[in-house]
Amino acid sequence: MGLLSAPAAVDKREYWGFSLYDWANSGYVTTVGTVLFAPYLTSVAETAACGHVGTADKPCDTNLDVLGLGISPGSLAFYVVTVATLVSALFLPVVGAIADRLERKKLLMCGFAWTGALAASCMVFVGGGRWELGALLLFIGNLCLGSSLVVYDSILIDITGPDDRDDVSSRAWAFGYLGGFILLTINLAVVTAHDALGMSQGTAVRLSLLSAGLWWGAFTFVPFVKLRNRPPTHVVQVRSGSLVRQSFGQLAATLKHMRTYPMTLLFLVAYLFFNDGIQTVISVSSTYGEKQLGFETQILIATILLVQFVAFFGALAFGRFARRFGTKRTIMGGLVFWILIVIAGFMLPAKQIVPFLAMGVAIGVVLGGTQALSRSAFSQLIPEGREAEYFSLYQAGERGTSWLGTLVFGLVHQITGSYRPAIVALGLFFVVGLVLLSRVDMRRGIREAGNAQPTLI
């Protein structure tokens, strides 16, 4: 069996359709969410506020005026992500409830994906002092990413059995890192060779943002063609009315009865904490490298490429570890590793590339594996018929939509004027998540949800 081939029990057509949506959206997650857009938007905002791009030697200390509030240009991107996720907390559960009542799930997923891809493509127009446009497009892109992933994650349950989910989820994540690696390699070449191509670095960055939107939109046609629609199962009966009204009723019923599934709820809370930490480390890494450690954009992209390359193998390795040691133990081991990473990040010396690259390798080892296994583990704890709705709650803490972490990071930076204490403060999220996860009884949770027990959990 190849590293990325489908397990024998999984339909190959749907396996490839599922895996290639990770490939598609990773173009946005890496090029826009992880590497280029936060530092680029910060530079645009600093130019608007101070008339120059801030550096370690000459920082921009003038705030932007946002609805009467003074906002540090260096914190703007993180506050936008925070607002997007707070809106997501209200919007995504309704998306999930609607998805559970629809037969054409994949159309809903792809519709959100194509809208987000359009927003990402329009980032090519963010330049000069147009930081407001950049903030709006980042908000739309993140909201659409989270909405599409609500439906996408629920499809994992549709196409796999309990014993195959760790493998399929891990391989799909690996596919995502491979796709992100390829697109980011192309963008690295464009940004690095911008002079030879006859363009400014800013133009090269904007074209890279455009490529991420086109990549996301084009490859979304693969799952649209290959995934099958299925009729909803065991939908909660609520009062009659429009689809949206019925979906709100279903959501209210689920929230009311969630206490019936205490292990599911405990896992969800644990995930909210530790994934906020993971997502914040991902989203702030390029800004931290540029503004705090003094690295050029080319170095940051090369480091993220290294992370993507290592993460491809890391996701596959975590799938193998889960088959040997169990999913929960493997996730907990990954969280211990994350705690060590943020402590080391606090101590990284400025403008020293070797320690920075070593940090990238360490992040790559655990990045995809912890997220892939968390998705498959949570899928075991969801009662039948509410898959998308439960994954909508899960998505509140999923990649690109963390809010507590970005809020803490932005506030600590604004108070201290340094990104170092902000990065180490993220360790608290991993510690809390680890403690809560240790208290989750997976076997009990699967039994309470009425699902079949996997061989090893």
Overall 3D shape? globular
Rg to the nearest angstrom? 21 Å
Specify the number of helices.
17
Helix content: over 70%
Proportion of β residues?
A: under 5%
Termini, distance in Å?
Answer: 23 Å
Mean pLDDT: 84
Q: What is the chain-wise order of helices and strands?
A: HEEHHHHHHHHHHHHHHHH
Spatial sequence of strands, sheet with the most strands: 1-2
Number of strands: 2
Largest sheet: 2 strands, antiparallel
Structural class: mainly alpha
Which residue ranges are poorly predicted, with pLDDT under 50 across at least 5 consecutive positions?
none
Question: Which key terms come to mind for this protein?
Answer:
457 residues; globular; two-stranded antiparallel sheet; single chain; mainly alpha
Report on the structure:
This protein is mostly helical and 457 residues long. The protein is 73% helix and 1% strand. The protein has helices spanning 12-50, 76-100, 105-121, 131-159, 165-192, 201-219, 221-226, 243-257, 262-292, 297-325, 327-346, 353-379, 387-395, 404-416, 420-425, 427-438, 442-448; strands at residues 64-66, 69-71. The chain has a two-stranded antiparallel ribbon. A hairpin with a 2-residue loop joins strand 1 (64-66) and strand 2 (69-71). Helix 1 runs antiparallel to helix 6 (201-219) and helix 10 packs across helix 12. It is globular and about 60 Å long. The model has no long low-confidence stretch (mean pLDDT 84).
